[in-house]
Amino acid sequence: MKPERALAGIDVALLAGGLGSRIRNATGDADARLLAPVAGRAFLHHLLAHLARYGASRVILALGHHADQVTAWLAQGDAANRLEILCHIEPQPMGTAGALRFIRHDLRSDPVLMVKADRFADMDLRAFVAAHKLAQADATLLCVEVEDASRFRRVDVGADGRVRGFLPPAPGPGIIDAGVYLFSAAMMDRIAATDMDTLAGDVFPSVAPGRLRGYVTCVKVVDTGIRSDRITAGTITDGAV
Fold first, then answer.
1. Which of 37, 54, 75, 165 could lock onto 6 through a cystine, CB 3.0 to 4.6 A?
2. What is this structure's pTM?
3. What is the pLDDT of residue 78?
4. String of b and e for 172-208 (b: at least 16 CB within 10 Å)?
């Protein structure tokens, strides 16, 4: 599969409805986390360029804190001019599952790619999509092997790719949840039919055994809430994402 076809026909749900407190703490101002500077450009520029490079054509944004800043940035064009982008503003923080329920009516594809707005995993999305389709899973989580798992929730993934559970952050090597998921349409419908708040705490534990998969890889994960991550993200440029 060519890179530019990996996400062809797959809608992207980009969740950015949090209060933005992590970005305020890291930057000292109230900028929206999607607009946090990474390698001299807004993080959203890099993220949209990466998605477009892999063939995405529709992005549904769930916005919250400082949504006006994000919509103003989008109106300027930039990387967004290659994509159809729809914005929904949450009336209050709704959690990850609540945000998906809020925008479900605009997500038409099967599967749907969901991305948390405060993370970037610089990976080849072809393999991720292929693994999800091969497993015919309800949901596939992008999991990354890191040397220090002290900042991220860890994932227990079996040798067969099944997610067996979740573990709290801990120092030392580990497999972490990168905040990028593929959900089947049936999974999206189940989320929409419940009043669950979060994916990790509510939705994932309710998935039938074997239907939640983890795709484990080893790539750089940038956390936009951490200033040092943004400063050292020199590999995230227009040529690399």
1. 54
2. 0.89
3. 66
4. eebbbbbbbbbbbeebbebbeeeebbebeebbbeebe
